[in-house]
């Protein structure tokens, strides 16, 4: 049963919330373009344009992601931080990402620098969004982390070793796949907006299946088939 809030969210749209939610699920869950989703929906007898799907993803993607982040269990106290280079319109930008010891993406931030001030800005964003202090942070040997950590998180243990940070480095792989599919990001704002929604949604539907029992795996696969027709009924993996 839809809540009043979820009903008002879709008010004025010609298509029902089930179709809107399904299109958003397809786009963020799989490495598909808007035109790919358009063709898949046409095969199912639903005629709409890729521009409509794009507008739906812009309007509802972050709302879905925020709801999933709100419903997820408390994240871990060990943070892995890493930054990766993005080429946007010929200019170098850096995608800063933090994950916990279980691989949950905590937050991301696209910036044009990776100096001390950029690291401090990312730390502040993490602390504001998560509202708790980690037990330990793990980074590579970029000096910006150490300088920022001494000011923002002075009492937190800091381990700097490239070999310990594979979890954060591996978390960039889905982003690289989508970057290639999208033929690179068009602007830093677009990258920030897309990845802020993409990471929570894709992560929710891509659990660490090698660690699940047979029963848990079946339930996880079923949850992908009941992607919410309204935000209030987001399934939990």
Automatic annotation (TrEMBL):
Pfam families referenced in this protein's UniProt entry, alphabetically: DDE_Tnp_IS240
Molecular functions per Gene Ontology: DNA binding
GO biological process: DNA recombination; transposition
Keywords from the named record: DNA recombination, DNA-binding, Transposition
Keyword hit for Disulfide bond: no
Domain DDE: from-to ranges: 77-202
Entry superkingdom: Bacteria
PANTHER family named in the record: BLL1675 PROTEIN
The protein's name in its UniProt record: Integrase catalytic region
């Amino acid at each position: 049963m839809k809540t009043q809030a979820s009903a008002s969210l879709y008010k004025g749209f010609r298509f029902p919330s089930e179709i809107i939610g399904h299109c958003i699920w397809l786009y963020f869950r799989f490495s598909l373009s808007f035109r790919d989703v358009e063709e898949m929906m046409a095969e199912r007898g639903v005629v709409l344009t890729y521009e409509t799907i794009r507008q739906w993803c812009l309007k509802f993607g972050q709302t879905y992601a925020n709801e999933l982040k709100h419903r997820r269990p408390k994240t871990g106290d060990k943070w892995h931080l890493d930054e990766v280079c993005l080429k946007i319109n010929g200019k170098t930008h850096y995608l800063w990402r933090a994950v916990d010891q279980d691989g949950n993406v905590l937050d991301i931030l696209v910036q044009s620098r990776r100096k001390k001030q950029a690291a401090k800005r990312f730390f502040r964003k993490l602390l504001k969004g998560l509202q708790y202090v980690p037990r330990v942070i793990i980074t590579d040997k970029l000096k910006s982390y150490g300088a920022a950590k001494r000011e923002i998180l002075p009492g937190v243990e800091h381990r700097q070793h490239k070999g310990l940070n594979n979890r954060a480095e591996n978390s960039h792989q889905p982003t690289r796949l989508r970057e290639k599919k999208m033929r690179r990001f068009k602007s830093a704002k677009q990258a920030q907006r897309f990845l802020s929604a993409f990471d929570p949604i894709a992560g929710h539907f891509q659990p660490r299946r090698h660690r699940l029992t047979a029963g848990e795996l079946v339930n996880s696969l079923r949850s992908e088939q009941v992607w919410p027709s309204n935000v209030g009924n987001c399934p939990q993996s």
